[in-house]
Amino acid sequence: MLDRTDPEGAIAEAAARCSNWGRWGDGDVLGTVNFIDGAKRREAAALVRHGVPFSLSQRFDTDGPQKGWRRRTNPVHTMTDTGLDAVHGGQGFPHGFGGADDVIAMPLQCSTQWDGLGHIFDHGRAWNGRPADKVVTSAGDLVTGIEHLAAPVAGRGVLLDAGRVLGEDGELPDGFAITEEHLAATAEAHGVAVGRGDIVLVRTGQLTRARRDGWGDYAGGPAPGLSFTTAGWLHRTEIAAVATDTWGFEVRPNEFDHAFQPLHQVVIPHIGLLVGEMWDLDAFAAHCAGDGVYEFFLTAAPLPVTGAVGSPVNPVAIK
């Protein structure tokens, strides 16, 4: 039972109980992604039966969820060369050659993305117990930059469609705290097991609702999500990563008074868990419901932006 008045105590207890500090050595930069080894990837590759791919990313455009909180904005896409320039402007190329170019400006965590290991600290400590001011400076994440994850995030994906199993019309209401028991019940309903090295995707249905009713407070407001009490499950199952269709992965409002993202404060700096947010799981979830198969090959490489603490991602599930 959580004591709503004591987030500090609950965070400290969960951090001590679930810590992976030193598990892969003092120099580790991958955290739980270490659980995805060659055997796990070969197992995942064998899950491909039909070669059907699904992108699990929202589109990156101005019609996105961001409202400016902490200077997070939606992407701004600008053309620097166009067909008009080619036809009317004279681009200076020989023999009729023409082309188009473009540029995009956006926060790295404005839409479908991974939280890197340098994204969240606990009392000034980053992943593996390092002092945060020695890890992330104005030059970026000098130790656990997202570039280290550019290759290894590929393996067995497992979808837990909690919205479909636990909710009405495939959606959980805002403020619904998904517990370990809920996750277990959803896995049982799907006939799938969760274990070491898996990349677990939890669909709540909130993105479905946002698409229907408008973005509203999707970015930072109330949401269904994982309960703080799932910290033990996230650690004990030895999963490599977890991602949801919500802005913040954990339930909002949070389960404590005067708290902000307490589960983040445990799972990223202490467990070393890779966390994904704002993934688009709707079309894929419908396909899984249709064929009854909730395990698949998943590749979800971040952009290797040197020193970044998060990155956009276009996850691709293949069945």
TrEMBL record:
Q: What is the species listed in this Swiss-Prot or TrEMBL entry? A: Planomonospora venezuelensis
Could you cite one Gene Ontology molecular function of this protein? arylformamidase activity
What GO biological process term is on the record, naming one?
L-tryptophan catabolic process to kynurenine
Q: Which InterPro entries match?
A: KFase/CYL, KFase_sf
Superkingdom to which the source organism belongs: Bacteria
Q: Which residues cross the membrane?
A: none
Q: Which SUPFAM superfamilies match?
A: Putative cyclase
Q: What is this protein called?
A: Kynurenine formamidase
